[in-house]
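Session log. Operator J.P. requested a structure for one protein chain; no other inputs attached. Running the standard single-chain path with token output.
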Amino acid sequence: MLMNNENNENKQNIEQEQNNNKKIVGLKPNLQAMSDENKNIENNQEENRNKPEDNRNWWRKLLALNPTYGFIIFLTFIFQASFVCATTNYDYINGTFEKIKIDIKSIVSKPIKIGNEVLFIGENYVYILQENGNIKKIEQKIKNAKNYSSIKLNDNNILFVGASNLLPSEKFRDEIYNIIFRNKPNSYSKVKRYNLLTEREKEEFYLPFFKNDAKFLEEYKNYVKEYENSMYAILYNVKTNEYKKVGKINVRRSNPKLLLLENGNVLIWNGYAIAGKQHETETFELYDSSTKKFIILKDLNCKNCSVFELKNNEIFSSKGEIYNIKTKNLKKLTETYWYNPIVINGEMILNVSGELYDHKTGKIHRVKNFHLNNHQKVLKLQNNKILFNSKLSDINIYNIKNDIVEAQCSFLAKRTDNTFNMLLLNNGQVLFFGGHYNAHKNNSISQILNSEGYYQNKLELFDPELNQTKLIKQSYSSFLLNPILLDNGKILFTSKNEYILFIPKK
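Structure written below.
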């Protein structure tokens, strides 16, 4: 019985081999060659197994097995090399300046980068600086756009958030006071109790006094509608050039601060309760990009603070607090304010005073070799090292891992105060610009700022890897501020009453 089984098995193997041979006969010559090559590889497998892993030339086998794979790998290599060169090998040393023809007086907030285009927000309209240099005006109107803040979402659409219209009770305050309280007994105590009411309670109180005043009621009705509309955020679709109303914010605020979170939601805080008046709101809200609604974060509040995103749904406030958006848990790190905090990979927070918070362990310790004052400039580099200036003219690189200052050099152009700025480029280099070269002790900072003669108009490029600086050949005559780095390597600056493009040489 055993021998019969073996004979049957051999017979089946022979039939299978014949079928395989029939299939091979129909293959194209190049595939037949591949099959022959496979046999050669199989014959050499024993020899290859005895070789060290690094010497087997696996990539040669892959290319021999299928030439198409080799062609794809070759194209991929060429594409990646081209992309790296295109994004990093810009010649900024020989760059040139070009003015943008747009009326800066009509622009009310910082421009937004969309790839190689720039979106400018005017008082009532949006303008787009296209890659070819033309300015395109979006005809659809945004009323009171100057009171909105804007941010680019993950889908490249723009979210406008802000509402500064007066409450109806504030808008019609004089009319309400004149008809209800003026020259009435105990008016002071009545007004005092009235001011403690909510907006809804106030409305229920004063509207009956105007039931026969048709003109007032019509004006009131129109304003309430305008006020309600102002509380809605606006979503601008970049592709279709169309606006639409989305979620309604919970707290009126003009020009709030916005932070795009990794999950696509937006954090909103601060802003002025009444436009033009220095009364900042302390509340935080969260815009849910999936539901298009705003949610109040009740336990989180601060005025004029910086906020950064950490890992695990947590955010850090320079008030010295960490808030978990998911669990609503608020943790106080320190009682002191964290000036110029640096967040690294969402895992560590470094204070300029030298306090380091490790998000993994939840502990704070003080580093030895990093202690700055609040006026020194700080910039996080691509490799998580930190660049800062000292003695006003020295550039230092601090290694947070080893707690050492590992490199130091000086500016080539004198910058004797901290009004200079710096920008991290895509290739890891740093562009320095601005500052002053002759800030004497007997000159006030206002005198210096208003004097073109003191302004340092030379730009320079710093290479952290080589620890060297080089001067940009062309300079600009006045202050350059608010740099925006575009995908094509160009840099957009604000300068007095104009916008300037700094264009690297390709």
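Operator note: Residues 58-89 form one domain.
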